[in-house]
Structures are given as structure tokens and as C-alpha cells.
Design goal:
sodium transport, 74 residues, sodium, sodium channel activity, 28% helix
Length: 74
């Protein structure tokens, strides 16, 4: 037999005064991503990969917005 546990998390307005480091989460309006208009864990990971590609080879993979011309020789 399977059991399912459901929990609901509700935020109190006062939590917004805590720092991001203290509450260990961000609100959608606190987005600091440059590629995506909203924050998500997946978007954060994709942007980290994008930034690493820019740092290592100076261009972005073809599925991301382009920044410079990317060739196999670059």
C-alpha cells in the first residue's frame, strides 16, 4: 500500500524582509538571471552552463542566445 503525504507551505509577509541567504530561497520578482525573464532552478542551471561556455570558448552553444560567432576553430 502506498501512502501520500501532502504539505502546504505558506509565506508570511515578514519573510520578505529576510535576506536571500537567510531564507535560502528567492521570490520570482527577485530574478537575477540575464537570459530568462523569471527565476527557476532549471533556468539557473542553464544560465550557469551558458556562462561557463562563454568563459571557456568565448561563444555560446547554438541553443542559447548568441554572443559572438562560434566555430569549431574558435
Amino acid at each position: 500500500m502506498f501512502k501520500q503525504h501532502i504539505s502546504i507551505t505558506v509565506e508570511d509577509e515578514s519573510i520578505k524582509t529576510l535576506s536571500i541567504a537567510k531564507r535560502k530561497c528567492i521570490f520570482l520578482y527577485e530574478n537575477n538571471l540575464k537570459i530568462f525573464g523569471w527565476y527557476s532552478y532549471g533556468g539557473c542551471l542553464m544560465e550557469c552552463r551558458y556562462n561557463l561556455a562563454i568563459k571557456l570558448c568565448g561563444c555560446s552553444p547554438h541553443v542559447y542566445p548568441q554572443s559572438g560567432e562560434c566555430t569549431f576553430l574558435s
